[in-house]
Amino acid sequence: MSHVGLSKMTRIEVVTTGADAPAVRELFTTAGAAGYTSLSGVSGLGHGGYHQGRLLFNDQATLELLITVVSDEKVDALLAGLRPLLDESSGVMFVSDTYVSRPEYFQ
Amino acid sequence: MSHVGLSKMTRIEVVTTGADAPAVRELFTTAGAAGYTSLSGVSGLGHGGYHQGRLLFNDQATLELLITVVSDEKVDALLAGLRPLLDESSGVMFVSDTYVSRPEYFQ
Amino acid sequence: MSHVGLSKMTRIEVVTTGADAPAVRELFTTAGAAGYTSLSGVSGLGHGGYHQGRLLFNDQATLELLITVVSDEKVDALLAGLRPLLDESSGVMFVSDTYVSRPEYFQ
Questions:
Q1: pLDDT tens-digit map of A26-48
Q2: CA-to-CA distance for B3 and A107, rounded, in angstroms?
Q3: Nearest 5°: phi and psi at B93?
Q4: Could you say which of C41, C76, C94 has the minimum Cβ distance to residue A3?
């Protein structure tokens, strides 16, 4: 990725139950994320659910996909906060590189 | 991407019609994916639709976005299964790198 | 990412209000994108909203997540068109690498 005017950031996505989503959103904000996007209409079968001997998600459960984008130096703190929350709940997390044109919007 | 405790995986996303979504989900599972996430409320204009001389998706069609995350060694088998399915239907597929904190959940 | 038969492309995602979504979709198409995917059921708190002294998005606002995938040489033109549109509205944009198996579908 090498386009004029793009800055590298980190995108963190969490799939979690509607019940746990507010705690995840609050964690995003307290860890320094300037915003987030929530998607409803999400269902799923838990990654690892069957392998853990318990069904993490079922096809009927209403889930949310929460997306935030933060500057790289905030990632470790955000992940440190998310891990215990996801261990207790049945959420999964994906972390990836992304690029934005206005990094100051995400500070 | 170099954060403590993250493992590289591959994220595979398919946008397909509601009718074809169950076959894609079944393929994910038989190819060794431990789970998936389905998003409804999806519409779209088919990538390549106009260029193929036929409208793959129209704005009214109800589509689904299906996401799975697998370890890298499962990717080739999953793609080999998806290609003929997507050739017959009107789905599109995106493949990207992602990182997870608990790779055992995705095995 | 080095899997047989995959071609590198660029994925551009925009989170914007339902009111601004048609203009973004039209821009995708005029910039040469062969298609797009729209997700509804999206809400969010604006990246940078609080830091700008104004609330870009509020939790009640109905937003859309628009996704398009284009070949790399179309990215700069697409971004050049999107920037003024996003500056006027309250949208955010994420750009990332992705891989597809049928690049001709995205031309």
A1: 999 999 898 899 998 888 876 54
A2: 19
A3: -130, 135
A4: C76
Interface test with A, best of B39, B63, B107 (most A CBs within 10 A): B39
Q: What is the pTM of this model?
A: 0.88
Distance of CA B64 to the CA centre of its chain: 10
Helix (H, G, I), strand (E, B) or coil at B83: helix
Inspect the interface and report whether the beta carbons of C36 and B44 lie closer than 8 Å: yes
Is A85 part of the contact surface with chain B (CB cutoff 8 Å)?
Answer: no
- Residue A90: what residue type? S
Mutation site, A45, A73, A76, interface B, largest B CB count within 10 A:
A45
Please list, in sequence order, all residues whose beta carbon lies within 8 angstroms of the beta carbon of residue A18, skipping any fewer than 6 positions away: A40, A62, A63, A64
In chain B, % helix, strand, coil (3-state, to 5) comes to: 30, 35, 35
Contact residues, chain A, for B14 at CB < 8 Å: none
CB-based contact (8 Å) between A38 and chain C? yes
Tell me the pLDDT tens digit for each residue of B8-63: 999 999 998 888 899 999 999 999 898 899 998 888 876 544 333 334 454 445 78
Taking the CA atoms of residue A27, residue A29, residue A30 and residue A31 in that order, the dihedral angle to the nearest 10 degrees is 80
